[in-house]
Amino acid sequence: MTAVPQERWKHARAAVLDTGRRFDSLVRSTPDPAAMATAEWSIADSAAHVLSIATLCLLLLDPDAPPPPVPGLRELLSATNVDTVADTNSYVMRHLPERDIEVVRHDLQTSIERILLVTRTANPASTVTWLGDAQVTVAGVLAHLVNEMLVHGWDMARAARLPWPMPDADAALFFDLFLVDMIRNDYGALLNADVRMPKHRIAVRFRSAHTTTAILELHQGRVEVAPPGGPYDASLTFRPARFNLMLFGRISALRAAASRDVVVGGPRPWRLRAFLRVVHMPNNARP
């Protein structure tokens, strides 16, 4: 079982509460919920999507939570991989049609309160079954929710021309507690095995001022967390908030590199491209 440091667990819980309150304030402050936050989703749609994520978190964390009215949801989640997340999102959103911004706000805050309540005495290193049958720690579920609020809040704030701070320390929870720990436990079928795999081993070192340095290794079609201090081909030094925006398609890799939010180095940095072809986040050409 992956160990979750107590201070990181406390940070994850505090970040859910703080980001949830800021997200609610942002939604309340938007002058026009019908304004487009992304190419396909309005501000109201984006807020409803975050509510759907919180609802999924509750379904996984709370045995007493009623399932949402989405036919075949568990089977759909099990079959989802990183390249079909957009289709899963669209399907879920069609079956959760509430867009009244006040109702969505209320339901999201209620869900966040319930998530924090039911996990108050939970073991943060215990796992739940995630998309693609991946195994994600309870701490990772909370880190994922924080990231959803931060990234979609960024979309909404841009549309409404409102400020939206993204603390790097909070954004870093996604890398440490969700991504790395999921790979360390079992990422199931979440990464698409049908993409073209490189023939040789590729190891990439990830480091920032807010995360534990990790080396992720891709070899023979599988991704593993390599022992610390080992050899690597490429290195990524990053600011977590901007790195997450890049991972989820909000800013380009060129823009992130130009502003030095992401710095690429290492003895064979050209291998990073093949690595990211396999190890990537959902394509957000659609939300």
CATH class call of the largest domain = Mainly Alpha
What is the CATH topology classification name of the largest domain?
Four Helix Bundle (Hemerythrin (Met), subunit A)
Q: Which word captures the global form?
A: globular
What's the helix-strand series?
A: HHHHHEEHHEEEEHHEH
Supply the number of helical segments. 10
Provide the residue-averaged pLDDT.
Answer: 95
Largest sheet, order of strands side by side? 5-4-3-6-7
Sheet-strand content, in percent, reads 5-15%
Task: Give unreliable regions as ranges.
Answer: none
Total separate domains: 2
What is the CATH homology-level superfamily of the largest domain?
A: dinb family like domain
Q: Major beta sheet, specifics?
A: 5 strands, mixed
Estimate percent helicity.
40-55%
How far apart the termini lie comes to: 33 Å
CATH architecture of the largest domain: Up-down Bundle
- By helix and strand content, what is the structural category? alpha+beta
Q: Using DSSP, what is the number of strands?
A: 7
How much is the radius of gyration in Å? 18 Å
What features would you describe in this structure?
It is a single chain. The protein is α+β, with helices and mostly antiparallel strands and 287 residues long. The chain has two domains: 6-185, dinb family like domain (Four Helix Bundle (Hemerythrin (Met), subunit A)); 202-278, Nonspecific Lipid-transfer Protein, Chain A (2-Layer Sandwich). The chain contains ten helices and seven strands. The strands form two sheets. Strands 5-4-3-6-7 form a five-stranded mixed β-sheet. It is globular and about 55 Å long. The model has no long low-confidence stretch (mean pLDDT 95).
